[in-house]
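1st attempt posting a full record on here, be nice pls
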Amino acid sequence: MDGLRIPQQLAAEVLGTAFLVFIGVGSVPATLIVNGDAPFTMADLGVISLAFGTVVVATVYAFGHVSGNHINPAVTLALALSGQFPWRRVPAYLAAQLVGAVLGALAIVGVLGRRASEVGLGVAAYGDGVGAGQAFVAEFVGTFILVLTVLLVIQRAAPPGFAGIAIGLVVFAAIVPVAPATGASINPARTLGPMLVQQLWGGAVDWSQAPVYLAAEFCAGAAAALVVRALTRTETVRVTADTTA
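the predicted structure (as tokens):
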């Protein structure tokens, strides 16, 4: 929006990403703590997916007019590649998103206590039954669906006023099939923030998995940008953060 300064936009990205991690990622340890020894069920996955989806809807409408509410480095990269966001702002946005993810993960520990770290802090990881190749495909597909949806619903020709709902719903939907394989991070900031805080709290973190997540998520963002160009072949609407350049 005209008149907004870059520090305001970066602050919105920090807050939006922090909200996403605290509510979305925080729903994972909250569910495990409440369940105790009870088995994890599809209903639990549905609640976690709903937490992610609803916080995305809220942040789109709360922060979208300030920063564009990227809250996902893969989205920022895709917007830059598709000409909808200035490249000179990409590093600052990515840094703000990572800071927000760390703050959100710290808030989880602050609210739920050390028990949150003991049950994994919602760190996205793939288990022994899932190889790196399968994990890459899962994160790529989930992130691609999310980013492609974001790029298309913000176009001028898209129905106005429904972007937040559409993005929230696709987050909810994408998590359901992807989470059993990788935890459905589909967001580089969401991947790294909880990992860093879990390491800080002395929890177990498999850092060898991080490159798989990051490569899949960033590649998916780039692929989504290329597909949008091929599908539309017209200039898409610029996000709020670009209009103040």
